[in-house]
Specification:
CATH superfamily: Cyclic phosphodiesterase
Number of strands: 9
Number of domains: 1
Strand content: 25-35%
Number of helices: 4
Helix content: 25-40%
Radius of gyration: 16 Å
CATH topology: Cyclic Phosphodiesterase, Chain: A
CATH architecture: Alpha-Beta Complex
Shape: globular
Length: about 180
């Protein structure tokens, strides 16, 4: 199976993650703090060469470092079979989403990936339900998400990253293939 690739902003976990993100219920996998990110463009299972062609277009994301805050944790995707529980950006959201809107189609074209017609949504996945998670586990997941108080947590977004799957995915899910500081 070919690994997935995506461009994202690295989300530094800092102390907020350990202090405010409790373990999710059974049936969920919590992201490792070093794997936290805001996906800007999901390239899918393209080749490494295609992913780096998209990376060569990273200059279109022309924002400098972003002082943002986190917001509520919400389900992503179909509400009954959601694929992730993610923290929305609160402050800084519009700036990030506008920049995503300017760049995403360009990155996807460069990688030969399918277009994404959904509106940009600045969010950071915290946990994913396991494939076998049923309706009751998913209800507990929603209750867990509602219990997290991340509103107003300050985060500084300062690095654009090309990610792919980690070689050993038992602990970390992703690895950085390329990165640059925002504003550089």
């Amino acid at each position: 199976m070919r690994p997935n690739w995506f461009l994202a902003l690295r989300l530094p976990a800092g102390g907020w993650f350990a202090e405010r993100v409790t373990p999710p219920p059974d049936g969920f996998r919590l992201f490792h703090p070093a794997d936290l990110h805001l996906t800007l463009a999901f390239l899918g299972g393209c080749t490494e060469a295609d992913a780096f062609r998209a990376w060569e277009e990273n200059h279109c994301f022309d924002l400098g470092p972003i002082d943002a805050t986190l917001g509520e944790v919400v389900p992503m995707g179909d509400p009954r079979r959601y694929s992730a529980l993610s923290a929305l950006l609160q402050r800084g959201r519009r700036r990030v989403e506008e920049a995503m809107g300017r760049c995403r189609a360009r990155w996807l074209r460069a990688a030969g990936a399918r277009p994404d017609h959904r509106p940009p949504k600045a969010h950071a996945t915290l946990a994913r339900p396991l494939r076998r998670a049923g309706a009751e586990e998913r209800r507990r997941g929603l209750a867990w998400a509602a219990s997290l108080d991340l509103a107003g947590v300050p985060v500084r977004l300062e690095e654009l990253v090309l990610y792919t799957w980690a070689t050993d995915r038992r602990e970390r899910r992703f690895r950085c293939a390329a990165a640059r500081k925002l504003g550089a």
